[in-house]
Amino acid sequence: MMAENPRSARTKAALMAAGRRLFSQHPIDAVTVDDIVQAAEVGKGSFYNHFADREALARAIASQIRSSVESAIARANAGVEDPARRLARAVCTYLRFALDEPEQAGVLVHIHSGHTSLNAPLNRGLVEDLETGLASGRFEVATVESGTLYVLGVTQLALVRIVQESNPGFAISLSQQMCALVLRGLGVSGPEADKIAAQVSDAIVRKNASALRQAT
Q1: Which residues of 199-215 are buried (b: 16+ CB within 10 A; e: fewer)?
Q2: Quick count: other Cβ atoms within 10 Å of Cβ 115?
Q3: Distance between terminal CA atoms of the chain?
Q4: Are 110 and 20 within 8 A, CB to CB?
Q5: pLDDT at residue 120, as a whole number
Q6: How far apart are CA 16 and CA 150, in angstroms?
Q7: N or C: which end of the chain has fewer CB within 10 A?
Q8: How many C-beta neighbours within 10 Å does residue 97 have?
Q9: Average pLDDT for the chain
Q10: Local structure of residue 114 (DSSP, 8 states)
Q11: Would you say 112 and 118 are in contact if contact means Cβ atoms under 8 Å apart?
Q12: Reported pTM
């Protein structure tokens, strides 16, 4: 495969960066191609050399961000076998992302089409953990799909609130509450769900929030 020339690569990177900034602040429909090329400081023709339309750029940006989140979740769950803990760690990692990368998290607030599919790469680990939990009796939900939609819905709304609030202390508290809610909804007993949620939010979200406070 022929390597992309440096000038073209810089133009594409500028368009992606401009798109992230704009889509983190506005719904896709409120952003025009003219807005994007102006923010990227490139010609309009250059946009169409890389993307068919605004939606294609949005998909490319969302795919890039979700790939980063997927990798972070995989690292967080390395060596963890219990599907309940894996799921809680995935939720907290996703919510911690709003603290680490507020701009990219803002994009996820505005671009979420297709993320509910069981076949979406970002959902692969969630689907596998739900399947494992159901097979072992750890979880009790009607179907893998209903469990997937439940977890995604709760987590996405929590991400929206953390982006809106932009407060580490709030993120810690909400992450713990949402993890406990998710686990209880999947059939984990209340006391155990609360214990796992407290441990995981402390290990994943509180650690990050403390680092943010020290840096500011």
Answers
A1: ebbeebbbebbeeeeee
A2: 15
A3: 45
A4: no
A5: 74
A6: 31
A7: N
A8: 22
A9: 90
A10: T
A11: no
A12: 0.87
Give the tokens for residue 179: 């993890």
Q: Which two tokens stand for residue 190?
A: 């209340």
How many residues can be counted in the chain? Answer: 216
Return the amino acid letter for 66.
R
User: Stretch 67-96: mean pLDDT, rounded?
Assistant: 94
Q: Please state, in angstroms and as integers, the Cα–Cα distance from residue 187 to each residue in 88, 119, 131, 133, 141, following that order.
A: 13, 24, 14, 10, 7
66-88 CB burial, b ≥16 within 10 A, e <16? beebbebbeebbeebeebbbbbb
Residue with tokens 């719904």: 27
d(CA 108, CA 65): 8
Any alpha helices (H) in 41-143, and if so which ranges? 44-50, 54-76, 83-100, 102-110, 124-136
How does pLDDT run across 100-157, given as a tens digit for each residue?
999 999 999 888 655 767 777 778 889 999 999 999 999 999 999 999 999 999 999 9
HSE, CB side, 13 Å, CA atoms: give it for residue 70: 15
Give pLDDT, residue 4.
Answer: 64
Q: Using alpha carbons only, what angle is made at residue 172 by residues 71 and 200, rounded to the nearest 5 degrees?
A: 55
